[in-house]
Design brief:
This protein is an alpha/beta fold. The protein has two domains: 30-114, Rossmann fold, CATH 3.40.50; 139-263, NAD(P)-binding Rossmann-like Domain (Rossmann fold). The protein has helices at residues 8-28, 44-60, 75-87, 106-112, 124-131, 140-151, 171-180, 195-199, 245-249, 262-280; strands at 4-5, 34-40, 63-69, 93-96, 160-164, 184-188, 204-207, 225-228, 232-233, 239-240, 254-255. The strands form three sheets. It has a six-stranded parallel sheet with strand order 1-11-8-7-5-6. Strand 9 (232-233) and strand 10 form a beta hairpin. Helix 6 (140-151) crosses helix 10 (262-280). The longest helix has 21 residues, at 8-28. The radius of gyration is 19 Å and the shape is globular. The protein binds NADPH dihydro-nicotinamide-adenine-dinucleotide phosphate.
């Protein structure tokens, strides 16, 4: 068997095209969706992510407002900037690019973003809405992963989904979303005993670990859908996922590649969240 490759790049283009239509409808009403991206410091990987987000905004008809601040920026100054963006009616979504410099408390900063503009879905209010089954602004990486499963036609209801990773931005929300779609969900982490025995039971396996090629073919049930969230840089500079792609591909039913899988879908879902936030914003 060779798995169906779920092409995240192509699917993301499709999602962005859909957002372009929604954005154009809003623009006709004089409501141009706006995303503010805040970048503190000069981390090169963050700068690359910000550039791709800005490019996606442009493609979809979303106005982007970039705030670039030096690494030495005080936390209080950053909080003031966020307050200003919270109050700016042109801005419907606010994204603070992580990681922040070590002297800044990322939790304090992220929680300062108004829930209505929390397009990353990281505030406790957004995560609480997800926990309670409400359609809020959901975290982009897990919602992109869910859309990939849905559009690829992977059955979810009643299936056993195993999520490796329990971070608040990927693993836990992915598990909640799968539960919401009536999967039976198991969450694994670094203290899970006999991880392969658990993952071999998975009809859907979501890997959000951050360890290059850790998930090997013997850990995968034949025919399973494998979503590889991991983005890892190898010593030769190439990117790879958490999944040992070729051998797992030979065993799985569906698989997402890295690069070109969950990554582009994450950006597309961010844009979708900006449009949703704009649609919900009070008319001024
Ligand atoms: P975190 O480091 O916050 O979480 C990693 C999780 O993996 C933890 O829950 C950890 O367990 C678990 N883990 C680590 N080692 C093992 C192990 N040996 N066995 C089982 N579980 C293990 O990472 P994130 O959730 O933020 O990100 C995960 C990956 O996804 C990274 O590669 C990141 O780059 C990528 N990512 C990709 C995005 C995209 O757009 N495609 C967006 C966001 C992230 P424990 O809790 O016990 O420590």
């Amino acid at each position: 068997m060779s798995a169906i490759i779920i092409d995240g790049a192509a699917m993301a283009r499709q999602v962005l095209d859909e957002q372009k239509i929604r954005a154009a409808q809003l623009a006709q009403q004089g409501r141009v969706p706006g995303l503010a991206v805040v970048l503190v410091g000069d981390d090169p990987a963050s700068a690359v992510y910000v550039r791709s987000k800005t490019r996606a905004c442009r493609e979809a008809g979303v106005q982007s407002f970039d705030t670039r601040l030096p690494a030495a920026t005080a936390e209080a100054e950053l909080l003031q900037r966020i307050d200003a963006l919270n109050a700016d009616p042109r801005v419907h979504g606010i994204l603070v690019q992580l990681p922040l410099p070590p002297h800044i408390n990322a939790v304090t900063v992220l929680q300062r973003i108004a829930a209505a503009k929390d397009v990353d879905g990281f505030t406790w209010r957004s995560l609480g809405a997800l926990l309670d089954g409400h359609a809020g602004l959901a975290p982009c990486t897990p919602s992109g992963s869910m859309l990939m499963l849905e559009r690829a036609g992977v059955p979810i209801a009643g299936r056993h989904a195993v999520v490796i990773g329990r971070s608040s931005i990927v693993g836990k929300p992915a598990a909640l979303m799968l539960l919401e779609r009536n999967a039976t969900v198991t969450i694994c982490h670094s203290r899970t005993v006999d991880l392969p025995a658990v993952t071999r039971q998975a009809d859907i396996l979501v890997c959000a670990i951050g360890k290059p090629r850790m998930v090997t073919a013997d850990m995968v049930k034949p025919g399973a859908a494998v979503i590889d969230v991991g983005i890892n840089r190898l010593p030769d500079g190439k990117l790879c996922g958490d999944v040992d792609f070729e051998p797992v591909r030979a065993r799985a039913g569906w698989i997402t590649p890295v690069p070109g899988g969950v990554g582009p879908m994450t950006i597309a879902m961010l844009i979708a969240n900006v449009i949703t936030a704009t649609e919900r914003a009070p008319l001024c």
